[in-house]
Amino acid sequence: MAMTPELTKELLKWQRAEITGHQTYTRLAGMVNDEHNRQVIENIAQEEAGHYEVFKTYSGQDIGPDRFKIFLYTWMAKLFGLTFGIKLMERSEDTAQKAYAQFMGKIPQIEDIIKDEEEHETELIDMLDEPVLRYIGSVVLGLNDALVELTGALAGLSLAFQNTSLIALSGLITGISASLSMAASEYLSQRAEGQGGEALRSSIYTGIAYIFTVAVLVLPYLLFSNYLLCLGLTLASAVAIIAVFNFYLAIARDLDFRHRFLEMTLISLGVAAFSFGVGYLIRGWFGIEI
Prior knowledge:
The protein is mainly α and 290 residues long. 84% of the residues lie in helices and 0% in strands. It has two domains: 5-129, Ferritin (Up-down Bundle); 132-286, no CATH class.
């Protein structure tokens, strides 16, 4: 195959991606306790190194890894779980596979490399089984209910009270009570469906997700005295939580980010707007001044 400057540049890009994958998988393998799963990841790391050597035979050059990506994927796995870190990395490898395909028949080993990359994805999906993904339905329940209920409640309380201390106190009482109620409901629901062994864990995930959301949404009212500023920060925080959570789901579960993000955002902000109007009407009808 005739080497051109353009092809050499492309090969070096692939080499860098493969050596980056090799070093990232090597680090991720060190985070896995299960012997079989660790061996799977280590084998993939070695195959990535092999791909690097194949491309090197054509480019004739060495190139170092992308240290930022190694850092990013490793810390994403530490913060959000191995599944998230690996699937985030696999998305970039899907792009590489499409680029490799354009050189079918030009580089003899390219078909084997593409096959290896496809097998990597299958092997990784088969081994990934994290608790947070098994109980993602419970997390969604707690998070979504807290976002809808608390944004609505805080919006209504903001105009009804116009006092950040009272709003924060009311929001915390409402939120904590609702989180305990939601966790208990999830426990009873799981028990009723015959999932006795999983009921407690499901309820814990629901409660934790709910309380976390409550804490984030109420925090502005504990820090600032302008109730409209606090409401704005609360709504911005709600949108940020929705964005982060749905990005996580989109990567870990291969779901559509845009649709789910818009749906949850419109529901939460719609309820908040309605509640804000209710607070305005109630304040006017009863003539309450606090």
